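wait is this the right file?? whatever heres the structure
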């Protein structure tokens, strides 16, 4: 029996929740790192204020450091709004989308023994790159494609991200080289009960309004909603 639109939306919501959960360590780091710096700077500022005589230049330096870290913390907290599909945004370029998702997931994939490799054409932003609407939806779709290849390709060693024409992305998983298996890393891959499989990725894409083409080791999707 074919899923109803409501059922597909519920499946897609579950997939988005799983993807956000996987991205949370990086998001949490962006918020906790400034807090650690602020705490240390406040401690040093207290000592400098209590000194006799007070060094105005040193105090100003600590205040400026605290101010910059507060700004970073505020920016990190505000970035959580970028995950809300209902939020209106200014769109995103293809290279910026790739860069954001690489920042979020590279460390986690490295820990699982899967390298992320970006084509050189995407690594260097171009001044005339078009911006594509619905950045939040594209971010979920891109992370979904990464999760699909990570979870579904046995002994995946590398996932390569390449441009496909001027308006699409292609992600391809390559099997780990012979002798490169790591039993410890493989044991900590995502639980299969929560894996992003074909059904999960297709429901996510349909709910977001995009079309994906996929097989066992490749995902392709256009950046314009269908």
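ok assuming it is, sequence goes like this
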């Amino acid at each position: 029996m074919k899923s109803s639109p409501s059922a597909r939306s519920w499946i897609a919501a579950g997939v988005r929740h799983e993807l956000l959960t996987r991205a949370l360590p990086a998001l949490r780091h962006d918020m906790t790192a400034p807090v650690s710096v602020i705490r240390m700077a406040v401690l040093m500022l207290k000592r400098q204020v209590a000194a006799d005589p007070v060094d105005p230049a040193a105090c100003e330096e600590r205040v400026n450091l605290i101010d910059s870290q507060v700004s970073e913390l505020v920016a990190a907290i505000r970035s959580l709004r970028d995950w809300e599909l209902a939020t209106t945004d200014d769109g995103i370029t293809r290279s910026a989308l790739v860069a954001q998702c690489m920042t979020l997931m590279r460390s986690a994939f490295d820990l699982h023994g899967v390298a992320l490799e970006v084509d050189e054409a995407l690594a260097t932003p171009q001044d005339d790159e078009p911006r594509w609407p619905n950045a939040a939806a594209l971010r979920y779709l891109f992370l979904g494609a990464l999760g699909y290849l990570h979870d579904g390709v046995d002994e995946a060693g590398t996932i390569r991200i390449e441009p496909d024409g001027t308006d699409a992305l292609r992600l391809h998983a390559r099997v780990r080289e012979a002798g490169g298996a790591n039993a410890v890393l493989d044991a900590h891959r995502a639980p299969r009960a929560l894996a992003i499989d074909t059904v999960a990725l297709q429901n996510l894409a349909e709910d977001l309004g995009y079309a994906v083409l996929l097989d066992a080791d490749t995902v392709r999707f256009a950046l314009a909603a269908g």
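The chain has a mean pLDDT of 87. so i think its the right one actually
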